[in-house]
Design brief:
Radius of gyration: 13 Å
Number of strands: 0
Order of helices and strands: HHHH
Helix content: over 70%
Number of domains: 1
Number of helices: 4
Shape: elongated
């Protein structure tokens, strides 16, 4: 199976979040959040996934990554004292 879109999205998540997120248990949380957003496809990801060719596949994963990054930043900000 081709998983380059998931790998690309996870790299985007790990490179776009604070270092504390990129290691240990938070990396697992990031992966679970990303997969949840990728499977559920909240708006507008379902619409984006309909783009022609391979664009929809790549763009919906980047959208899921963006949602994940927002949640992780929110967790980092609210849990950091």
């Amino acid at each position: 199976a081709v998983v380059i879109d998931e790998a690309w999205a996870m790299w985007a998540i790990m490179l776009s979040t604070p270092p504390v997120v990129s290691s240990g248990p938070m990396a697992a949380v990031a992966f679970v959040l990303f997969r949840a957003f990728d499977v559920v496809k909240p708006p507008p990801l379902r619409w984006v996934s309909r783009a022609p060719g391979g664009w929809g596949i790549m763009l919906d994963d980047l959208g899921a990554a963006a949602y994940t990054i927002l949640i992780l930043y929110g967790l980092a900000v609210t849990s950091h004292k």
